[in-house]
Amino acid sequence: MIRVPTRRHDAPGIAVQTGVGGPAARRPWGLVALAVLVAAALVTAAVGWRPALYRTGLLVDGGRPTVPPTFYDALPVPRGTSASPQPGRPAATPVAAASAAPSGPAPDRAALAKALGQVDATKMGKTSGMVLDARTGQLLWARDQGRNLVPASTMKVLTCAAALDALGPDHRFTTRALLDGSRLVLVGAGDPYLASKPGKDYPHPGTSAALAQQVAAALKAKGATTVSLGFDESLFSGPGWNPNWPTSYADQVSTIGALWIDQGRPSDKESPSATPGASAATVFAAQLKAQGITVEGEPAAAKAADTAEQVGAVQSLPVSVLVQETLVHSDNSAAEVLLRHVGTAGGQGGSFTGGAKALAQRLDAMGVMAPAKGLPATTAPRLLDGSGLSRGNQVSAQLLARVLQHAAVTPRLSALHEGLPAAGVTGTLHARFYTPASEAGRGIVKAKTGTLSKVSTLAGRTRTRAGGEVVFAFMSNSPQQEWDVRSWLDQMSTTLATCRC
Question: What is the pTM of this model?
Answer without folding.
Answer: 0.82
